[in-house]
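hey so i finally got around to running the thing on that chain from the lab meeting. sorry it took forever, my laptop kept dying and i had to restart like 3 times. anyway pasting the input first so we r on the same page abt which one it is
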Amino acid sequence: MMKRRDSIKTLSATALAGLFPDARAEKVGDKKDRFSIEYVLSSALYGNMKLDTILPEVAKSGATGLDIWGKPHGSQREEVDEMGVDAFADLLRKHQTKLTVSTRYPLGCFGLQPEMPILKKLGGKILVCGSSGPKNPSGEEAKKLMKSFLEKMKPHADAAGEHGLVIALENHVNQLLFHPDSIRYFAEFNHHKALGMSFGPHHLHTFPPKIIPELIRELGNDNIPFIYFQEHSIGMLKKVDKEIEMQQLPGRGKLDYVPIVRALRDIQFTGVAEIFMHPTPRGIPILETAEAITGAINQSRGYIDGCIAKTA
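ok and heres what got predicted. didnt touch it at all, straight out
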C-alpha cells in the first residue's frame, strides 16, 4: 500500500512537471533577467516653476521621487528655505511623493555637511555635487590626485554615512573627476560605502562612445548611486533652436543607449537615474508648460524602456 501511495505521488509530480516543465527554471531565470530602472525627476527641468506645480509631475513622469535643484538652474531649493523644511515635508505628503536627491553644486564637495540633516529629515538619500580641481588630470597625475582627494573626502563621506546618505560626485568637465583615467582611479581607490559617482555620459562626449559602458562596468553598482541620462549638445552652451537643444534627451540625439543599458544590467544597477538636459539660459523651463516637460521626459523614458527590452 505504501509503495502504491509513493508511486501515485511520483506519478502526480511527474504529471505536474509535464504540465509546467520550466516553472522553477522560469522563476530563477526571471529573477536573474528581470531589470528595471528607478527614476528621479529633476526640478531644474521646470526652471523657476513652483514646487506645488512640479510635485504632481513626479508620478506622472514615472519617477519615484524628486531631485531638488537650486539657483541658477532652478529656484526650488531656495523655495524650501523660504517655506521651511516642515512645510516642504507637508507639501510632499500632500502630493504623495518624496524627496530622493538634493543637488547642491554651490556648496562644493567639502561643504555638504549642513545639507545632510535637512535631507535626512526629509527622507532623502543622495547628495549630488561636483568634485574639485585641478582640471582634467590624467595618467599618473590623476592617480596621485585621486588618492589625495578621497582622503580629504573621508570625513564628509563619514558624515553622510552617519546620516544614512550617499554623496554622489559628478564626472564634470574641468574638474578632477572628469578624464576616464580619473574615473578608473576613483573606481580603484574608493572604498567608502557613502561615496560614489553621479555618472554623466554627456561629459564623456569627447571620448569614443564605447568608453561609457566600459566605465560603468569598471565602476560597478556600488560606485554609481546616480546616473544622468543626458547627451551632449551644443544647446548646453549657447542658444540654439529648441529642437537642437532637446537633443540632450535620450532618444533625440545620436547616442545609442542600448550599450549603456546593457552595462547597467550587467552590474545589476540599483541606483537612480535622471532623464536630464540643460536649457540655455539656465533657470528657464525646458518647455513652456509642466505638462509638455513631463511629456518629453516620458517620451525619453519610453526610448529607454525599448533599450531595456533589447538587452533582455
